[in-house]
Amino acid sequence: MFGCFLRWIKGGSFDGRKLHDWDINACPMSSMSFAEGAAGVLGAWETGGQVYFEELATANAALVSAAGAGKGRKHPRVAVGGDGEVLMAWTEGTGWQKGGSLAWQAFDRNGIGVGERDGAAGVPVWSFGAVVARPGGFVILY
Predict the structure, then answer these.
(1) 3-state SS assignment for residue 57
(2) Is 91 helix (H, G, I), strand (E, B) or coil?
(3) DSSP per residue over 9-55, as a string?
(4) Distance (Å, rounded) from C-alpha 142 to C-alpha 127?
(5) Rounded to the nearest 5 degrees, what angle is found at the Cα of 86, between the Cα atoms of 131 and 77?
(6) Potential cystine with 44: which of 21, 71, 78, 120 (Cβ 3.0-4.6 Å)?
(7) CA–CA separation, 135 and 104 (whole Å)
(8) Has this prediction a pTM greater than 0.70?
(9) What number of other Cβ atoms are within 10 A of residue 51's Cβ?
(10) Beta bridge partners of 41
(11) How far apart, in whole angstroms, are the C-alpha atoms of residue 8 and residue 31?
């Protein structure tokens, strides 16, 4: 909504597109995030227990998912470094009145996983992580 509002103020136009199908008869109890980098704006979201990110302004952009089978992954967060590298963090095992763990993985500018997926226990109830790019790397908060 905020992005649309800014474009409206500047007199520009915008359009929408569906990112993913997900038939669900419940509240997913998840969230999404956005991050801006030199190549554009990334969006990250959860569908069916897996987390994804994609360059939003590019038609037919590559959809990138976290490594491994997605089951119980929620609240993805992305940050883009100066070299175009992306860090995505997400929660695993969180739910209604239930904490869990945090996992993360780095991706190169082409969406290819760099290194191994990593993680840490201890995400409190009603919480999730955050990621921030800084010169020479990223900071993960939870």
Answers:
(1) coil
(2) strand
(3) HTT-------------SS------EEEEETTEEEEEEEETTEEEEEE
(4) 8
(5) 35
(6) 78
(7) 19
(8) yes
(9) 28
(10) 36
(11) 25
